[in-house]
């Protein structure tokens, strides 16, 4: 009877050890960071690799590292540097950085949060920075050089997002919108200038052709000349 009890006890112990190991062994996918904390002052981070945690003494939390697309729009019209009210629509991609120091910062704000929550926080920061840059540029500057506007917003927002462990991967302006058709008029004016320039070029070419025709070489091989009596 004692021998049977020992065998049963041994089986139970082995079974418990298997369960313990199964709960201890973790495999983190490349788009998530597993944060293991509890036994150490600095948490362990697993990204795209396997690791162990001590059950009951250490806990596992998750950070989403996947790319997060965000549609960033100014919620109301913003005055430009030349006092023209406009709205801006931009498409931005962000993610939680995989750098150690930024992982620690992100852990303080986004542990176990989904991408929708992360996007909402980043959107507020990006909109605030976008409004700030709108106020520093004229409408013509923004419309004629969208990339400059995007670069300035990105440069301005980078420190704020980095403080939360986020990186801006891309920033693309979709539209500048105003209710007074100022942008439309800028386009019409620009087209008119291009057409006028093209007309001037054509007129000059026609004049050059006419001058060339009247000052060419005659049938005798000599240059024609105009004689004024």
How would you describe this protein?
The chain is an alpha+beta fold and 229 residues long. Helices cover 48% and strands 24% of the residues. It has six helices and nine strands; from the N terminus they run αββββββββααααβα. The protein has helices spanning 2-24, 100-110, 115-134, 139-144, 146-162, 182-214, and strands spanning 25-27, 32-37, 44-47, 50-52, 59-64, 68-73, 78-79, 85-96, 166-177. The strands form three sheets. Strands 6, 7, 8 and 9 form a four-stranded antiparallel β-sheet that branches. The protein has a three-stranded antiparallel β-sheet with strand order 3-2-5, with helices on one face. The chain has a two-stranded antiparallel sheet with strand order 1-4. Strand 7 (78-79) and strand 8 form a beta hairpin. The chain starts with a helix and ends in a 15-residue tail after the last helix. The relative contact order is 0.11.
Helices, strands, pairings?
Blueprint: H1 2-24, E1 25-27, E2 32-37, E3 44-47, E4 50-52, E5 59-64, E6 68-73, E7 78-79, E8 85-96, H2 100-110, H3 115-134, H4 139-144, H5 146-162, E9 166-177, H6 182-214
Antiparallel strand pairs: 1-4, 2-3, 2-5, 6-8, 7-8, 8-9
Give a brief description.
The protein is α+β, with helices and mostly antiparallel strands and 229 residues long. Helix content is 48%, strand content 24%.
